[in-house]
Design goal:
By secondary structure, this protein is an alpha/beta fold. It is 49% helix and 16% strand.
Length: 417
């Protein structure tokens, strides 16, 4: 009798547990403030149709990496973070991120995810991030200025040599008109807009594994020489040397700049805010031809040790925003979706000039490095010093030799052992 009573009690207790509602989870994601708007909209859509909730917290771009690093060290990290993809190797190498390899490889559209974002999220053969909000660097050119200078307004420059030649002809129009604007005061902008020239020529600034500097190449010398030639000829807008991104947009929007080194965002920005500017866009060419682009933007990663329940919510949210309907929203809000197989769906209702950057994203590149800030971002770092000294001072040989040595010194110290 006692045995039957115990069995009955156990059965009742088990049934009670089975009938208890599963507790909803909150997934806390830190994101760069520049990306917060579209991610909040995606989270709101997800939250409206799910019991689990995605909570977005905006962190300024400059504070994201140090703040995330400190929170990980203190054991108080968020569940995940939407990071600039260039920082993924560093966080992956320090064993801070959750392995997402099986999830990513199991997605039916895995092969269509932005390749550079996946490459930067891969360490020791494992994948630690999923593309969220990519962008790509391109050139924009003023068709009206091209026509006034006797150039074909429907033909984008196919090489850096052509850009230099066209820039001089446009500058010759006078009236404070300049052939080229690029942001030379920011290492982030310089790596975004300048490295594609090198890649388009089949060269690179770092080895494939990011551990060795490859600064001294014919492609680098030719590219620096073309920029220096334009600077000496007065064909580069003088504000390029000290200006910021907003200065570049304002100069191009004024109709006084022939070619702007820029990013994929420019199409939606110009069409919405400066509809009277007649412009075209193209991939960034190499010194003698070819085309390439810097794949920028954000990757979603999870912190190591996240609970299985929260990880499941994250994977559900990722698959949600990867669906065509949400990819259209991302296109509308930020200009480019992370899937490269949805051109018709993503851009059907938008300016077809967006497709230039979208198409190049599949072959765009990003430097794989564990020291991106020291190498590229620091205002007194070797990348900024290389381009400033070579382009504006004409010290090409000296600048290349110094950059090669400085890159090597930093890489020897920061490469994972």
């Amino acid at each position: 009798m006692m045995k039957n009573w115990m069995l009955m009690t156990t059965a009742i207790a088990t049934a009670g547990l089975m009938s208890m509602p599963v507790q909803a989870e909150d997934l806390n994601l830190w994101v760069r403030t520049s990306s917060a708007g579209v991610l909040e909209k995606l989270a709101d859509l997800y939250n409206a149709s799910h019991d689990d909730k995605v909570v977005i917290t905006g962190i300024t771009a400059e504070q994201m990496v140090p703040k995330l690093g400190a929170s990980i060290a203190a054991g108080a990290a968020p569940d995940g973070a939407v990071l600039d993809l260039i920082y993924l190797p560093t966080f992956a190498a320090t064993d801070s991120l959750e392995d997402l390899t099986d999830f990513i490889d199991g997605l039916p559209y895995a092969a269509a995810l932005s390749p550079s974002h996946i490459r930067l999220a891969t360490f020791d053969g494992k994948k630690y991030g999923v593309p969220a909000l990519p962008d790509a660097s391109i050139i924009a050119y003023n068709k009206d200025l091209f026509a006034k200078a006797g150039l074909d307004p429907e033909k984008a420059p196919a090489s850096l040599a052509e850009i230099a030649e066209d820039a001089k002809k446009i500058t010759a129009l006078g009236n404070d008109t300049y052939g080229l604007f690029f942001v030379a005061s920011s290492g982030s902008w310089l790596v975004y807009d300048f490295t594609p020239h090198i890649w388009a020529a089949g060269a690179d600034i770092l080895s494939e594994d990011g551990r060795t500097a490859t600064i001294d190449t014919p492609a680098m010398r030719a590219t620096l020489a073309a920029y220096n030639d334009m600077w000496k000829a007065g064909a580069i807008h003088p504000t390029s040397r000290s200006g910021v991104g907003n200065d570049a947009v304002a100069a191009f929007a004024s109709g006084k700049v022939g070619v702007l080194m820029t990013g994929s965002y420019i199409v939606n920005l110009m069409t919405s805010q400066y509809p009277d500017v007649n412009f075209g866009v193209a991939a960034i060419p190499g010194p003698d031809g070819g085309a390439s682009s810097f794949a920028g933007g954000d990757t979603l990663s999870l912190m190591k040790g996240i609970s299985p329940e929260k990880k499941a919510v994250a994977e559900s949210f990722i698959d949600f925003y990867m669906q065509p309907e949400q990819q259209v929203l991302i296109t509308k809000e930020s200009g480019m979706p992370p899937r490269t197989d949805l051109a018709k769906e993503a851009y059907g209702a938008f300016d077809p000039r967006n497709l230039v950057a979208y198409d190049i994203l599949a072959s765009a590149k990003t430097p794989y490095t564990y020291a991106s800030d020291e190498l590229f971002v620091a205002r007194t770092g070797p990348w900024v010093n290389l381009l400033q000294s070579a382009i504006f001072d004409g010290k090409i040989d000296e600048a290349i030799a110094k950059a090669q040595a400085d890159f090597t010194r930093i890489l020897d110290r920061t490469n994972p052992k």
